[in-house]
Amino acid sequence: MEVAPDQIVTWLGFIERDIARSWGRRLCATEVALAYAGVEGWRRSELDAWQWISKESEAFVGFLVPEGVFAVVERGKPLLKRLSGVAQGDR
After folding, report:
1. pLDDT confidence of 91, banded at 50, 70, 90?
2. What is the pLDDT of residues 17-50, one digit of tens each?
3. Residue 2, pLDDT score
4. Which secondary structure element, helix H or strand E, spans residue 13, and what is its range?
5. Alpha carbon separation from 60 to 3, 26, 33, 87 (Å, rounded)
6. Residues in a beta bridge with 14
7. 3-state DSSP call for residue 30?
């Protein structure tokens, strides 16, 4: 499931992967690809270098609940998902 470009949901912030896994069923959550979120990169702090993502082949993993969407992180780093239809050699 993906969040469609014209679908607007409330941004809820970030959630750690282990919390999302343990609470997902209780919250009726769905994993989504945030391919249309317009995010091109991330960094942990102002002192760290930017880590760029390939928007054609990767997307941030989202945690969609009835109230809105979280971006999933693991130990402070965004969890990325390879988009379907993109071969590993195409990166």
Report:
1. very low
2. 999 999 888 888 888 888 766 667 777 778 888 8
3. 52
4. strand 11-16
5. 11, 22, 6, 18
6. 71
7. strand
- Scan for tokens 């942990």, then name that residue: 44
| DSSP 8-state class, residue 88 | G
User: How many C-beta atoms surround the C-beta of residue 19 within 10 A?
Assistant: 13
This prediction's pTM: 0.72
Using alpha carbons, select from 62, 61, 65, 42 the residue that is nearest to residue 52.
42
Distance CA 19, CA 17 (A): 5
DSSP letters spanning 54-74: -TTTEEEEEEEETTEEEEEEE
Residue 85 CB contacts under 8 Å (≥ 6 apart), including other chains: none
CA–CA gap between residue 14 and residue 1 (Å, rounded): 19
Q: Regarding predicted confidence, which is higher, 89 or 54?
A: 54
Q: Is residue 60 classed exposed, middle or buried when 0-12, 13-18 and 19+ CB atoms within 10 A define those classes? A: buried
